[in-house]
Amino acid sequence: MKSCMHLLLCFLLLIKTTTSQSIIKTLPGYPGPLPFKLETGYISVGAEDEIELFYYFIESERDPETDPLLFWHTGGPGCSGLSGLLIEIGPLAFDLESFDGSFPSLVINPYSWTKIASIIFIDSPIGTGFSYSNKSNAYLSCDTKSANANYLFLRKWLLKHPKFLKNRLYVAGDSYGGKIATMVALEIAKGNEAGLQPRMLLQGYIIGNSRTGNEDSNERIPYAHRMALISDEYFELAKSGCHGEYVNSDPNNYKCQYALELIRECTKLINDIHILEPRCRYMSPRPNDILSGQLFLEDDPLDLLVLSRKDKPWCRNHNYVPIYVWANNETVQEALHIKKGTITSWTRCNMTIVYMNMAYKEDVKSIFRHHQLLNEKGYQALAYSGDHDMYVPYLSTLKWIRALNLTVDDKWRPWYVGGQVAGYTEKYKNYNQAFITFATVKGAGHIAPEYKPKECLAMIDRWLSLFPL
């Protein structure tokens, strides 16, 4: 009886939480009513509900009653869910061809993942996008706090949207968001085991070019060799001199340091986010060290706005200028029901969260154990990698998967879209039939759906439908 009363009390406390939500029927830049259901809002989390996490929710355009629910985490840390919505996998995109620096137009993305799933895009951690707090100390965050806050957010969100409690749930994210998504998935699994309410129908998790830990950077040199960016001679010199440890190498090992300097010279002007695309120029020099363990950060929006018309050749970051113009527009913020006075300037990725190394701490150095526990508990996983990403190369993803010592269920083979090779896949399983599907996305960079939207939609649709890629 006491146990039941305790669960009821927790349930009531969750329901009483401070929330606000609005249905958005039109958006500036898009002609006419939106052809999908969009909801935005805030949910309070934290010990005293001092953190207001902003979200965008889009119902599946196919069948929201039976289609799965995805809880999406954009990278960073500090990159807005709006970037995931408008640049990666959402139903709207900017008309880049017509953009001339003035207010941008929005067009339909025919390869949106909302064609097959309902998606919650969250601005997390605190200080990201439109999320805010009235308490300055609330902006101090870390991996653990972020994952716990996002789990609490989802519990409260589902209690406000109980019809989605019966939908299959997948936690998803790319880049650093993949790390947090994995941690949130494990929190949900533990919460279900502990009887926390509401119980969620967690099926698994989806991660793209996801950070695992500091060891990711160590695979950049083998990747650079495979992609013919460094010679056999330089690679063998580094292997023998550094004994396979490139990031945390001994500074007194002169043979190793000499080899690494040769490699740096070969790769310093390579765009590690997509090795075939031009590297951006900046008003102030940016280091590009193949061995840097620094987290991926958004470039200074001032650089983007000032140099977008001057910088030749084209740079992918120029595609991000419209989102700055759009999201900082007062009419747009009113349409999204942003609380006035809560932020001074919207950024796609909040550099101050990590760049100053003050507000956010990477307190979880590796999530290998998280992957291991989720696999042992029977949850399914899709781990995909743009194969032209050197920042978190596909080799680093394969390394942690193969370290789990699983059985290969489906050997390395191509997967196809429209009769063309879209990438390569390999499937692993453990003793309780929990599968990890690995897939490369051919020609894609760090954020695979941004580069290959058609192929990525086909990939996620097949995987969610339990079909082979």
UniProtKB/TrEMBL annotation:
PROSITE patterns, sorted: CARBOXYPEPT_SER_HIS (PS00560)
Keyword Signal annotated: yes
GO BP term (any one): proteolysis
Gene3D superfamilies xref list: alpha/beta hydrolase
Domain of life where this protein originates: Eukaryota
One of the Pfam families matching this protein, by short name: Peptidase_S10
Molecular function, one GO term: serine-type carboxypeptidase activity
Signal peptide: 1-20
InterPro entries cross-referenced by the UniProt entry: AB_hydrolase_fold, Peptidase_S10, Ser_caboxypep_his_AS
Keywords carried by this UniProt record: Carboxypeptidase, Glycoprotein, Hydrolase, Protease, Signal
Family statement drawn from the similarity comment of this UniProt entry: Belongs to the peptidase S10 family.
PANTHER family: SERINE CARBOXYPEPTIDASE-LIKE 7 ISOFORM X1 (PTHR11802:SF224), SERINE PROTEASE FAMILY S10 SERINE CARBOXYPEPTIDASE (PTHR11802)
Stated name of the protein: Serine carboxypeptidases (Lysosomal cathepsin A)
UniProt organism field: Handroanthus impetiginosus
